[in-house]
Structures are given as structure tokens and as C-alpha cells.
Amino acid sequence: MRTSKNVYRAGVIAAAVAVSAASLSACGSSSKPGTSSGTKASGSTSFTYWSMWQQNEPQAKVIKKAADDFTAATGIKVNIQWQGRDVITKLTPTLRTGSSADLVDQSVNALGALVAKDETTDLSGLYGTTIPGESQTVGQVIPDSYKPFLNDKSGKPFIAPYEVSSEGLWFDASKFPDLAANPPKTWDDLLALFAKAKGMGLTPLAVPGDDKYWVLLTLQRELGTDGLKKLASDKTGAAWDDPNVLKAAKLVQDLRDKGDILKGYESSKSIDEEGDWAKGQAAFYLSGTWVPSEAAPNATAGFKFDSIQLPALDSGNTDTGINFFGFAVPKTAKHSDAAEKFVAFFMKKEELSGISTQALNLTPRADIDPPAQLASMSKALTGTVYADQGHLSVDYADWTNKMLNPEMIRLITGQDDAAKFVANGKQGTIDYWKSAS
Amino acid sequence: MTSATVGVRRGRAKGSPLARRRRRVFGPFLAPALILYTVLFMVPTGYSFYASFTSWDGFSNPRWKGTLNYDHLTHDPAFKDAFFNTLKLLFGCGIFLFVLSFAFMLMLREMKGRRFIQGFIFLPHIVSGVALAAFWDFLLNHDGMLNKGLHSFGLGPVDWLKPQWQFNAILLAIVWINTGYYVTILMAGVDRIPPYYYEEAKLAGTNSWQRFRHITLPMSWDVVGTAAVLWTIGTVKIFEFILAFSGSQGNLPTTNQWTSAMYVYGETIGGTSPIYDFGRACAGAVVTLVAVVVVVVVLRRVTSRDRLEL
Fold first, then answer.
1. Does ipTM top 0.85?
2. Which of its termini does chain A have fewer beta carbons within 10 Å around, N or C?
3. CB within 8 Å of chain B, chain A residues 42-81
């Protein structure tokens, strides 16, 4: 027989080590301080591109073809690595240890952290570059209304967009043939539309239990474009006392109370609801430009994808939110010259058209026809646009993740009513800023 | 002092020739592991402890900010959620898991085909957490297998995954995933107990509970203690199941479903617009580490017994 003191000691050490390893693997560490700009070459014969797409995605196929065409035309080799959506996460440690990528792509929002830390290259030169074989520059084919959202805080462009996205209320145009031409102009018109859907034997709405769009976009319509930012930035919480916040929340609560949403939605995810909507179980689904391509495999025969925007409310706001996916050049890139040449090449109408024809998404070029499913959305984006979702996820990412998103989900799933949503939002914002300061 | 005495003393000090040779190779054998361990574990641990006192975004150099990150944690509702959810996993799941594992162990001990059943319940432990999360969702969602089953009996549907219940579904899944693993560990301890103890106890007229209480438990107590420590350490690493089960299309789960590991992820590189607050994340990790070390120390004290050499 012997005592277990050694086991005790070993247990403590093992615990300490294992927990450290677990927790610190996410913290990570690097002993190499600071970043430095890479040595920029002027006649690079190759460059490395980390892409947000997986190889089998349509966007990847369009990009791969452009890269092959580019190599054939210029002799510059493109080393593409299909990194997936967390490409920026993978890029981050390389910014401290020396660049691994000369070119990356992601959404404006995901690139936001790099931009905020001044880790991307000013693309003014690229914007002034003439697109090969065309007479216009890169900057000239991008609509001026988009440009404020493509610049860093000093007004210099950091992203060259190749895909544009937005949100809308999706429906099957074979069931509502005149709707795109005559969208509801008021909230009452919208409710009348839902009543019409009910008359056709359809549940009006498919809404995922983790949905934020209904609350967010209704608030946006009620408060105006800057209203959401006020909710986030007012440290006293007084912005939540605006009666229009309660009014917007009440409109959303009423949708739920009236039973306009597919049963069981509280315990569903967006992918489930999108599928149910495409199978014809509900008439409308509020979501992004990816819906037609994503939902197509589940769609009933003859399903014709189309969308409308939510109607104006008290603020009169009819703007359309806009989001971009595009290229950025990390500051540490050693072959930025070749990377920028490729971007200019990809912006050619001939190459970029693939994003519309193959990937079924919108491009920033007005002279490329949108896919039929996105024609209404494309038209909406020719009007006034604003940074998608009020840019909250970049400017107030922490507040949005911790405060707003959970509260919006509590409202849409009926855990809280409109009054509680406002009370929680106010107190939560006060508490957030107290702890953040 | 005679030379003989000196010789004896030297001999005692250095031991036998075999012991001396063993001592000589001890260093060279230990060094590579020690170096690797220091570089891969101790240095990052130390650096993270330092980073917890800084403002650090992972890009630029950390800036010293004293204990502000720790102050923040005391006010941060997301950290409170994460910390209490980790405790729920540790104690809530832990108690349920160990009771269940003991029940399985007792049932399997004398059962025919026990290896097959043991393998069957062990299976979830070796499957990827992401695949298990997909299965769990497939089972419990509104149109899932469970509700379809209920429907065939004219019952339901039940919103198993409504937000108020979602973390409970996670707790249940964690028990399901881990039961087989802990049954295997406990069985290994029980298998060492000589059968004649049980035979004699049976002859003495004991029932199953008495045999469990007076033979199984005391004679496998050290294994139970080690399993409890393993579980404690394991709980702070539970992460991918929750992310895959409750997150959606790159979005983080809502904070009421965060655990300590999820907090570290959410404060750094998680979500569609990451926050990159490595300093605060490291502070959260350090607090969790300290809490776990305390729990482990208490556990070892509580479960400390003289071990029986069988």
C-alpha cells in the first residue's frame, strides 16, 4: 500500500498544463514583435493569393479561370490557396512573422479589423489602373455611390470589390407575379400582402430562430440609417427611449403574435427555414443575395426567385443596405505589384461576368447584367445605399455580439416582448459601456 | 575515518552501478521532452499570462494596461455567462455523467457481450464534434427524428431546441458523447478487482448495492479520482460541439451559450467580424485556469485515499 500524494501532485500539474494548452491555443502567441512592410518588388513573376472560397464553389471556379487566363496573358504565376471563410483569421499571425499572402479576399466587414489596424495597402494606384483591353480604370467601373464604403478612415480605398450583396424579402414570383413591380409602400401594405398569402393557404413568413434581420431592418427603417449607431454609441442608453425603437419592436412582436411565422421557427436555424420556404411552406423569407443559389436545390418545380425591399416607416428611409466581397493587399505583401495586376485583370468585363453567370451573384459593374433572380435587388442597389446592417458589426462588433444580437433573438423568438426588448437594450447598453470603459 | 567507511558512504551516495548508469541516462532521455514541453506549453502559458495584462490585438505589440482586463471580466455579462456555463458543464454534467457511468459499469460488469456494448457507447467519443452537432440538430430540430417519432404516436411536436432549452440540449449531448469514455476508464479500474472478493461477498449474502459500496467503490477509488480530474480538465476544452450546434453560417452562438473556451474564441477570432481582443481573452483563460486548478486541488483532496496495491 502507498499513499496517493504523488498522484495528487501529478493531477494538479496535469490540470494546469491541459487547461493552459486548451485556453492558450486560442490566445496564441508570437514573440516576434511588430510588423513591417514587405520589400515591394516591381517586376514580380508570381504572387500568392489566399482566397475565402473553397475550390468547389462557383466563385472559386471563376477566379481560377481568371488566374489561368492571367498567367497565359502575362506569364505571372498565381499561387492560389483556397483557405475558406476564416482566411483573415489564418492571415493574422502571418502579419507579425512576415507575409504569406500577397492578395486576400473577404467581405468588407471581415477585412475591417485589418483596415482598422492599418494592415492593408492603399489601392488608389489600382483604382487608377486601366483595365487590360478596356478603356476604363478600375475606379471608373465601380459606381461612385459604393465608394464611401470601400475606403479606410483616411479616405483611401482598401478593397477592390468583385461581388455585391444585400438583403431583401424573397418570394416565389410564380405565385406573386406582379409583386416586384408593385412592392408594398407602407407597413400596412406589407401586412395586407401577408394576409393575401394566408388567403392562398400559405404561412406568410419563414423566420429562423437565430434571425436578426427582421428586428434589425425594421429598426433601420423606423430610425433611419444613423439610428442604429445611436443605439450602439449612446453610453447613457437614452437613445433607446426614442418611442420609435419601441414602435419598431412592436411591429416585429405583432408578426409573431399574429401567427404569421412558420410553426417551430424558434428552434430552427436559417438553413432549415430557407429550405422550408423554398419547398413552399411559407411565402416570404427575409435574407441575403445568396438565397437564390443556396435555396435552388430545395426549391419546388417552377420556383421563380425574386425579392422586394421592406417598405418605408416613420423615418421615410428606403435605402438599401450594401455589402461587398473583394480583394485586399496586406501591407506585408512582397509581390503587391503582381497582385494588383491580377485584380485589374479580374475586373475585366469578360472575367468578372462569371460572378453573375456562374456564381449567380451581383458584380459592382453596371454593364454586367445581373442574374435574373437578382434583377430586383440590383435595381434597388442603384438607389441610395448604406453600409450593410449599419456597419454595426465592424464599428461596434463587441456590443453587437454581446448585447444587440442576443436581445434581437429574444424578441423575434418571443422570449421578450417589445417593452422588455427596449428595457433590456437600454440597460444592456449602459452596462456594456460601463464595462468597456 | 577508515577507508572502508568512506567507501561505504560513497557507495550509499551513488547507489549500485545500475543505479548510477540509470542516473547518467536520465538527463539525456528527459531533456528533449523537457525542452519541447517548455517551448510548446510553458512559454505560451507564460506569454498568455503576460498578455492578460495588456491590450493586444494580435497584430501590433501588446500595450501594458495593468489589471483592466480583469476588471472588465467582473462586469462583462458574456464572461459571466461563459464562466457559469462552464461550471454547469463541470458540475451539472459531471454528476450526471458519473452516476450514469457507474450505472453502466455495474450493468456491464457481469454482462455477456459487454465489450460490444462498451464499444457502442464509446463510439460518440471518437466521432468529430461537428458531425455529432449535426446529428444532434437532425435529431432535435422541429422537423427532426425525435418529433417524427412522436408524431407517429400522435404526440408533439416539441420545440426541443427553443432558445430557453438549447443549452440544456448541449449539456445532454456532452453527457452522451462522454459516457462511453468514462465507462471505459471506470471499467478498467473495476476489472483489476479480483473476482473472489465478489464471490465471497455473495456467499456472505450481500446485495448488489452493498458489493458496490464495500468492494467496487473503495477498490477503484483512485481511478474515480483520476477520472474526475480528467473530466474537470476536459470541460474547459468543450468548444467545437457548441460552435457547430449553436453557431450558424459563421456567426457565433448567442452569449448565453458561451463557455470559457467559446469566450476566448469570441473575444479573438470568432464570428464574421472578429474582435481580436487577445488581452481580454487571455485574462478570461487565466481566470478559468485558476478556477480549474482550485477545483482539481479540492477534488484530489476529497478523493485522496490510501491506494490498494492489488
1. no
2. N
3. none
